[in-house]
Amino acid sequence: MSKSLPSRPNLEQLKNQAKDLLKAHQNADADAVKRVQAFHPNYPKASEAQIRAAKFSLNDAQLVVAREYGLASWPKLKEHVESLLLETAEPMELFKTAFKEDDAVFFRKLVKRYPEAKTKINEPIATFDSPTIIHVRSSEMLDALLEASTDINGRSR
Length: 157
Fold this sequence. Notes:
Elements: H1 11-26, H2 30-39, H3 48-53, H4 58-68, H5 74-88, H6 91-100, H7 104-113, E1 124-125, E2 130-131, H8 139-148
Antiparallel strand pairs: 1-2
Helix pairs in contact: 1-2, 1-4, 4-5, 6-7, 7-8
């Protein structure tokens, strides 16, 4: 039986659920073992001892969480959550979250969905009173910001 996502799912909370499951597995928690057995495709017929002894990574925990919510994989869960958020959440909050989580792929999806937000990319943020680009942590996010701040004719804003 699958769990239901809340109406406004939070990817960070789902990540925390996976981390909690990983810790519970490491502690040989009986509930964690049952969840792994029920939802991980490698362990449906494994004994509790085999599951406790198995190498179990964060990716495995994420897979279990995704399957608990009825999705085949963590990337599918992430994609589903993002699509729900695109429909329900406030766009600028989504931009901030994508930037904070250094998620250039989702950031690009947001730019496509909300092109009017491009005009705000170089505006100061929070208490730093400086443009977003100054706080970039990865080349992927830098590329996404530069793409978004360039207009159709290839000129920078």
